[in-house]
Amino acid sequence: MSRPITEMLNESIAVLTSPSVATFERVERNGTKQDALQYVIAAAVVSAAFSAVIALIFAVVGNASMMSVIGALIRGLVIPVAGFYVFAYLVHLIGKQQGGTGTEDEVFYTIALISAPLLAFNSIIGSIPLLNCLALLFTFLIQIYMIYLTYLAVRASMNLESTPAIITTVVAWVVQFIVRIGISIILTVFGLAAS
Fold first, then answer.
1. How far apart are CA 90 and CA 125, in angstroms?
2. Beta carbons of 176 and 86 less than 8 angstroms apart
3. Phi first, then psi: what are they for 167, rounded to 5°?
4. Could you give the number of structural domains in the chain?
5. Rounded CA gap, 62 and 55, in Å?
6. How far is CA 43 from CA 36, 81, 115, 124, 177, in A?
7. Contact indicator for 107, 68 with CB cutoff of 8 Å
8. What is the C-alpha separation between 105 and 125, in angstroms, rounded?
9. Domain assignment of residue 50, given as a range
């Protein structure tokens, strides 16, 4: 049976407000890969819905195509979930090669605890153009904080020392970034073809 979103949200608050390897280790076995995916999908749905509403407002006001709304919805769902899955999978794969002993469940779950709430937060801030511009420095600092949290999650979930955890995090992030760009290009090409 899957964990309630509220329990995962409480654990997210714990790791976001008291970041340490020990905090992640306390919660790493509380959820599964399936729980992690459900949590990230729930955040992506919130994110995509918000992006689609903003795109709809701009479509109505700016007389733009409804394809922009559909595109925002699809991009908001597909890219974050695919990016999360690729990243977590790579962390587990690369972490094993670095001598890590964590399970897929531990890796996916700990990374989901930071990814899901920050995904929803960043998408809400990023969807509103004026707010996005005003909060540019703040969102940049959040991204730096997320990198730090990810490093801690990788150390805890894969049971790695500092250097192998850094290598694992950086390589997984670079590959995930390339995959996200590829998905964005594919969705854009199909979006242009559809319109």
1. 28
2. yes
3. -60, -50
4. 1
5. 10
6. 11, 9, 9, 11, 19
7. no
8. 30
9. 5-194
Half-sphere exposure of 90 (CA within 13 A, CB side): 20
| Rg value, the chain, Cα | 17
Digitized pLDDT (tens) for each residue of the chain, 195 residues in all = 688 999 999 999 999 999 999 999 999 999 999 999 999 999 999 888 887 777 777 767 766 666 667 777 888 888 889 999 999 999 999 999 999 999 999 999 999 999 999 888 877 776 666 666 666 777 788 889 999 999 999 999 999 999 999 999 999 999 999 998 998 888 777 765 544
104-127 helix and 67-97 helix, angle to the nearest 10 degrees: 150
Closest C-alpha to 124, from 114, 132, 112, 133 = 132
Q: What is the pTM of this model?
A: 0.86
CA separation, residue 111 to residues 72, 74, 89, 107, 121 (Å): 24, 23, 10, 6, 16
